User: Fold these one by one.
Assistant:
Number 1:
Amino acid sequence: MKLPAPHLQLIRAALGDAGALEEFRRSHPDWRTLPYLWTRLLPAVGEQHSLRDNEGAVLATLRGTIAGELDRIDTVTQATLSLLEGAGLAPVLLKGQAMRPYYPDPVTRPMGDFDLLLSFESLREASTLLTGQGWKADHAIPQAAHVRHANSYTHPSGVSLDLHWYALESCRWAHVDAALWRGRRGRRLLPSHNFTHVCLHGFLSGWSGVWVVDAARILGQEQLDWSEVLEEARRRRMLPILSRCLAWLKDHFGLPVPQVDSPRLDAFCWCKLNYHNFLARALLPWLEYRRAGGGGLPGFLTYLRQRWELPGRRHLLAEARRRWLRQPAARSSQPQPVGSLDDVREFWSRPSAQEAQDLIHPFHNDAGWAEAVVREIMTPAVLAHSPARALEIGCGMGRVMIPVSRHCAEVIGIDISPQMVEHSRTFLRDHPHIRVLLGDGSQLPIPDRSVQLVYSVICFQHIPDRAVIQSYLREAYRVLSSGGLVRAQTLHTAASPPVSQSYAGNGYTYDSLSSFAADFSQAGFSIVESQEQGPYLWVTGRKV
């Protein structure tokens, strides 16, 4: 796992290293501009160190937001456990909720959702119970257990649940979790099993670094049976990955873990650790299928069709190519937005409601994606402003507006597509404090000085003319009250994001972050924060 040096410093600071905190402060003096994933470590940093006044102010705002998130998640978690256990099912807590006993101050351990483990045989009954309470499933229950490891569900309140029938995505075969079930303590895993799960899941996918703090908390409060830790990794055929994870934890953070002889990487573990490699992406589906006990080619093709949720085998080749090249799902029947605002309006007026969601973001058609986007919008600087009324430019159906509304009393959306506005009426029917208006692509149909926050995401990259973007920024200045904030995102010219043209758009692209920020300044805003995150440019401005 390769992380930037400042990110490693922040993780060390969360573990109590004062020197690492000073190094981090030198490169990042203003914590209001930190990437979202890094901010999830700040509560642990604040628990370990005395903070400066400006840092403490950011942390206080962040803690309030996290506390609100945790209250909602905890309420829904307890109700869900009571529902499932009342039906005779026996869920096990995973990830964040499983770590709660190790954090006396719950806010120190942020969560975006919660995870439960059930047997596959219980899944259909559990799903029926959840949907009967208003939960929405992101996928149908698969015909075969090994096709996926979990289903995502969204509660009416917006809380997300990942319901697992396998504890780890990489380990999907019969009886692989048998030791977890035998050794569990009520709703929780044995400490050795929990530690193994934290390390394997975190090392492969935990880019925030919170999992490192989790591992350290377990080590500091438990006497682990290391033979059971290693045996659990062997049962999962993941010992080569765990050995490298332990070495990384020891080398970078000095955690008290044993030296484990590093077994030779088999093909599967090599692919998991090198997923950026084309060959690894091409081989991994076959290796997953074989590890799950699959047989020959016909069964493999059926496995792929079910895993990728395709209507028939004839779609396999195109889908395999798309995934191996890391391209998004494309809908060839849809025209591409080109040329003018009229073209853009026509493009976004054609899709059905489901197609619109697929086009907005082809990889994550679930509430979790919208939640992640909102965390990029509602930075500590924005949260500290406490906007009562927010406006979204280019809101589409309104998916992002729902989680934004938890921070504002009212949210208004503007979109140039009549079809999107019509879709929003159905999509937002349970949210009376959110409304969507039809715009003309140049002006905002909102009175002067009437909102405290204007934001835009995945919109400017579709606008073909820079002058239109500049007009929107001037309009944002007009409708904002004094001191109000605007925060917007677009793509830059050098970007080559793994997204389709329908997502990236054919709009104007900026050649630098400074040129994007210059348009905010030209509209009258003072720049509060600006970030370049991979292919994305983000700027926040304040009306002065």
Note: DSSP finds 25 helices and twelve strands in the chain.
Number 2:
Amino acid sequence: MSEIIKPAHINIMWRMHQPPFKDPGSGTYALPFTRLHALKDYGPMLRYVEKFPNMKATFNFTPALLLQIEDYSKGTSEIAQRISLKKVEDLTADEKRFILASFLPATLRRVIEETPRYKELRELRETEAAALTGQEVPKRYTAQDYLDLQVWFNLAMFPPITIEEDKEIKALYEKGKNFSEGDKALIFKKQKEYISQIIPKLKDLAARQQIELTTTPFYHPMLPLLFDASAAQMGMPWLNLSRGLYNYPEDAKAQVDMAIEYHKRTFGTLPAGMWPAEGSYSEQVIPIIRGAGIQWIASGQTNLANSLHLMDGRSKDAKLSPQELYYPWLIGQDKNGLRVVFRDHGLSNKIGDEYRSWKAEDAVNNLFGDIYGIRNSFLNIKDERPPLINIILDGENWQEFYPRNAFDFLSQLYERLGQDPQVIPTTVSAYLGKYDHAPSNILTKQWAGSWAGGTFDTWIGAKRANIAWTFLAKARGTIKLYQGSSCHETPEWKERIAEALNHLYIAEASDWYWWYGEKHHSEDDAKYDFLFRRHINYAYSALGLKAPPEMTWPIREHIPPDETKSPDYLSRHAPKKGIAPKRKRRPNKEIEVPYLIKKLGILEMEGPRFESFLVELFRKLGYRAERVMHDDIGADLILRKDGKKIAVQAKRYKKPVGMDAVRAVIGALKPLECQEAIVITTAKFTYRAKNLARDNGVELWDGERLAKEISRTY
């Protein structure tokens, strides 16, 4: 009897996401990428599926992205959009510089190369930029050149599928140059129309069961790092983290719960599946995800290999068997537990990278050859279930490297998937509903990692990323103090705390740390940094506080050029002070500290030991004293005496202490509900620190005063 060939089931999952680009101060979108990708990719990717009724796919739109799409559907403000709409004769020199810098982006590189007029404008750009600085150049942009560049930047966002379907857009492409203000107005009218179709189209295709809609924690944070940042050490054992650097399980839960609620409100149903941001999960976050009603998640195959290494000791590099990679897994022994499917890196990466230089037909044939090979590997496997092959990749970046924005490749792929009886397009929920009654693959141990190599090294460990995490931790700790204060239970304070938390949740998004890492850079790094710090600052502002001064500087300026890589940076909990931009400071010289401080070995004490020493000292002086166990909140000790509560900042220094220590303890008064403040040092204070302390009623204990108080109890 011949073997029955099980058809291969293919789940193609497109992940769509953009970080929140809206500036919370101005309410204006600082970058145009949500609009650009909505027109170039998000809407078209849905229309490709719609064109082929037998095609099925999974779509993952993050809530943070959908919120932005809603904004654009209603009409919103965006810097590039505003400058595009402005008449050329009204453009300022700065706005012209912005156009030259921003309207020929790498994202549209292929369109620029394939469009003679757009390419011509790029070639003239350098001479025009020089002319704007006052240099003599042989040829400059004319008013028509600026108008054509305004038009092409926005027209190029429409991909081939839109050009073929929309006669007015096609006519503008064919016109090519000498555009009018009326042409420009038509483009923006069309843009709003197409963006407004995205969410209704998602609903329609889901109702027809052509697509499955999944979700992601609301602002796309790395759940394991929110729950406990030490999860990173599983794949990065060299990373030196202080315990509790970031340890907010409640934030992980909030990001999941907000996503579920938004999905239900927007689509009228609860999502069955979830793509945890960057495919990241850990043992600790599984109960949060399953507790929210999620039935399955997806991740990368490296996480599977590493989890099996934990379970049975096999090499992490051991090849996964077909049954391991192409059958879903159950996490834990509960048959109703969370399922997880794993991305086939090889097939996914072929689409994301390798096929870009191939002819569409050859690429599709090669992909199907690999799929047939996987299907044939199940011929001798005694299991009635067919293989589930998971091809998972972003739905917005790889297409721009293909001819015609991958129009030909996707059209041929979807057409063939809908016709081949041995390769069946499906969704994870459809597969699980039919074949997963008795799962055979059970994961009893979970590796903490992302789809990208099974680690978190893209998001934590690099110098800039580490500083960003310390900023986040400091801000979150401040909000935590307000959350736990009985003085802040009024409706007004609850609203302010909720506002601060929302800014903080946005700052938890993985995107910021991606760009702060060493692997990824772009011409917009400074804007990402600005938006991240903007939300941190607004979190403080919502509570009526000023953010610490170091958070007002670009993060790159916190890193001296000669500083070596420091994997223990996070263990120090705070960025280096005093490295303000464009500002030189005289180095503070070490000073002679009092003899008694030397004799007692205080300068050699570690920070916690010094704080404990001070606690004992103050108790002997008649105070009730305790350490503040949350780092970087601006105070190290809390004293109580005669009905007063006093915040104490302690500095075990050999050099003069500056204004930052005084500012920090002043900032701690309100959240700690203290009435007075003291700053203690083993050295001296700068002149400015003394003035600031005097103006704000802060008591200063220098080394001599400290030695005097010690001698009273010694």
Note: The chain has four domains: 24-52+70-201, 216-443, 463-572, 595-713.
Number 3:
Amino acid sequence: MKLLHFFTLFILLTTSLFAKTHEGKFEYTTFEYGFTTNIEVKYKIWTLYGEPVVNTVARYKIVNGFISIDGHSYNLSEFPKTVMEKVRLYKLELKVDFETTYSTGTIVFIDVDMGAMGDAGKWSFNTPASPKWSKWIYYANYFSKERAIKAYKGFKKLESCVVYTKNIKYDITALKRYVSKQKLEKEKQRLKEEYTAKTEDLNQEIEKLYDIDKKNTSRLKEKYGDESLYQVMKRLQKGNNKEELSAFMKVLEASDKLALKVKPLREKINLITEKHEKIEKKFEDEYAYAILKIDKELKEINHFIDEKIVEVENRELPQNQPIKQEIKSSLMLLIDASGSMEGRKFEVAKKAAISNVKKAISKNVEVAVAFFGGSCSDPNVLNVHDFTLNSINLVSFIQNAPTMGGTPLSVALKQANEFLYSSKDKNSKNETILLLGDGEGNCANIDEVINELKVNKTYATHQTIGLEVDSHSKALRQLTKIATSSGGSYHQSVSVKDLEQIFEDLSDIEAIDNMIGRFGKNYNQPKDISNNSMQSILDNFE
């Protein structure tokens, strides 16, 4: 009890040792990338449990400027208001020098991250962050923790600080899209004018020829009425009127000559049209390609913003961080990712694994997760995440893990144990592998692998789970062998419905530790797994 009182008093003292809060705002104008941007920053800096805490937000307004796109310079005033409204400042990191009584005459810097930036005029989305003392205040290099604390104690307001842009990025995809569209329309208009200029004289010449032909055929129409030209010619031939027939035939021959003159003119127009259409399609293809690049750039920007929001949302303050303890146990989840697991079985296994990971880490047990699959000849059949106490990274890894083909159980068993002993925390005394499988291994003999691991003293305790494994199958015998030969036990999951409950039971790390202590490393003394014996083991997880 006295120790507890002492510890509580220590925490209170270290918390209030320099608990002064610095809060205010400052304005800053940047000229990066040709933009003149006014930035307003609100900040709050304090300490919590002896650690620094910083929260800063910013909003901005793009005043004016020039932008270079595809080698051409544009004044921002050239763009419509609706286009400019889509321009975003999506990343902003500042370097701020501040006054401190600790280092008179010396410029001291801190980096300021504004979180996820919003649209112009809106405050950024940010949450308090707790940088390490040794990675926060600097001049040429970061100050040590002791120097940083002293500098912070002499901290003055930032209103009179000098601000430098450390990292700033704009989303100008809307400007690029507008410029590309305008360029296409301009090229199309130019092509249209060229096409009109090249074909206008030809069309006028064709019209003249048509007018001449029309006058000739009109005279014939006036003379012969509704009678067809063929009928007229036949009648004149029968009537033996040579003069009239000759005059009639001359008009027809003139019409044919005019048609012959029109044909090459039409061919020229067709060639010009074909060439024009090819050039126009080329410009449209270039525009489509430019839009694809712009869309890809916008997608990457939005992905960055989404990741920044997740990062901001998942920050933890010192009081939410567990007091670091010495790691005494290491747990590795080894999960079958063969093709037979694909679908609901795999999803339920992932869900159960995530729950197991969170509970283990909450008890200061370091956890690694490995999925196994592929062929026996693969040099590495594991898709593995290293030991960590960061549940967020492990959960993301589990959620995104794919299935991987075959069931190289013996190869996975060997690689997993070797990985565990080479990667676990040096202070860890208890090592457990929780193995889930739904079928028999199709590689080397399990017994040979187990014997080799024992000889090399790299064989951890295994708790094995058979998912929908037949009670007389080779898979059951293999999983049972792995468990009992290591001092662990085999657990049967009749269906995916009870898989989560088995993981729930096995997530009691204290029970696992008790079992490890109970069975130790007596590899050559397999335990009986009769129903009564199994129940006595499971009783440890109540």
Note: The chain is about 45% helix and 20% strand.
Number 4:
Amino acid sequence: MTARTASAAVLVAGLFVLHAPSLVADDESFKKGMKAFDDKKWTEAIRFFLEAIGNDAKESATRKIGGLFSKDPYLPYRYLGEAYYQQGRCREALNSWDQSQMQPEIAKVKDALARVKTLSAECEEKGFLLREKLDSEYQRVRLIINSVDAVAKEVAAARGANPDSIGADLRGRFNDTQATPGLLRRRLDEARESRQEHEFVVVAEAAERSRREAGALLLVISGAADGATQIAARLDEMQQQLAGVDRADGDVRTQLSESPLKGRASPALIDTAQRASDGLRRAHTGLEAARRTKTETDMTEARRLITETSGVFARLKDELEKERAAIAGAEMKTLRTSLLSATTALESRFATTRSTANQVVAGERPRVEALLTPLERRLARLKTRQQSARASATELQNMDKERALIATQLDAVIPVIDALVPVTIPDVLKRAAQSFLDGRYGDALDALPESTAASLDARLKPHAFAFRAASALALYQYSGGKDEARLREAERAVVAAKAAQPEFRPEPSVFGPKFRAFFEQPGVR
């Protein structure tokens, strides 16, 4: 090997090292957040992810932060949510994941989305509401509070019509009735902020009590005499019955919005649910009319509407259960098939990783085995569990969670093993680099055909295509801009370099400014 050849080989090897810093995205906050995240320093990770979001809240599945081999897509809300989760702060975690899932990027990173859904389900088991259920509960309780507000307004109107009806003994109850709707709305907002289901239950129960108390006060103010107690008892009974129908409506909405019925219920069932909800609204309207007029006609009509709607919901819940059971049976089969398929794919990844591990030098083998062997054993145990024909849906889902966890841990091990495999610069790349540096551009292209460049190690591939692109561009320029074939050849090589490593940029110490500008032009992608 001549001195110039050796120099070229060293230069090509150096490109791999020199180029790495230029690939790191200008986002120190996110990188520091990921470092703290990996080190389980959750408070520090939260601070840096919030800084990153302050700089750029738009997530990206393709934007890699951290250099040439980074596998961390820019998903700050996803990692912020898990940092909160690790601190036991499910409310903040779910808020962060909501922000992530309102953007389209996390859906492109399946493992990240699966991790978010797994942790979200664990928060749900602790009594925190996911976004759809949160919105549903908020709307349900808001309707009850609106009815409290309507009765409070009736009380105010009755007092306005008969100011003497409020004496000293009733003034406190009257003031409470007027203040309660605002207080309940603030408590509802606090419940939504907390995302805890029991908080909504507490507010709903308080609203029901307030509505009954306001209704009782309305009877007093309206000067109801004979039969007032009986009317109040009948109204209260109907209100209790209607509250049961409200709960049935909430149950139906929940079943239709969750697996296995979500998006899969039959059109006839959806239509029945819609008609049941319409009937419930009419029943509420009828009861409010009866509460307002207290006439026998309106009270009888309200009773009819409530009874009729209650029957519709009872039949609807039976139909939902039958359809849920049918779908669940089909889902079990699909779930098992999907699990086995995903496990087979994971086995293939393990085989590839083991093949790579066998290329590691002997001195590093113990380190590789300590990382890879425990995961291989866990996968073997998981496959044994999957052979059970009696596994329930929950058990299959837990197996899939275990598979996803193993896959995630394998993702973390693969870069470590890859980094331990030495990179050997092939002679063909050395010859092409030397020819390029000597100004023998045709020889450089001959020494490194396109098919050969495409077959190189992924870490060397962008450098090989950069030499081809620069050589072809130089020949095009020497032709006075007439050799269009060389220009097309240069453009193809630039496209190939970017495809091999999107963050790759030509090293200024090797490639001139004209080529670097050509590499960056928008038309060459």
Note: The radius of gyration is 34 Å.
